[in-house]
Sequence to fold (124 residues):
Amino acid sequence: QVQVVESGGGLVQAGGSLRLSCTASGLTFDAYTMAWFRQAPEKEREGVSYIGMSNRITYYTNSVKGRFTISRDNAKNTLYLQMNSLKPEDTAMYYCAVDWTRGPWFSADGYNFWGQGTQVTVSS
Fold:
């Protein structure tokens, strides 16, 4: 049984930083692609960043380029999202997605496994 668990969310002031973590068990971690999504109230789930099975291929949505960094430590079965220069518009529930199999990387429909999310709130 695959389990995906996010952590690291919280309340931070604008301009601050947070690092999200995601662990995945019940699968061979380094054989799966992964991504971070976010969803603000009354908005659709949005692809934030994607990473291939190693750290060589990464994608970012335009609004976070230069501020967020995705990485993974396959030895620890952990995915990270380092978020710097946070803005109030980054406020959302952040989700870890595993196993991209169809459609564009930023489409939530393309992933097979999801965590429950971790809340990030950025105050102005």
Notes: The first strand starts at residue 3 and ends at 7. The two ends are 41 Å apart (CA to CA). The chain has a mean pLDDT of 97. The chain has no helices and eleven strands.
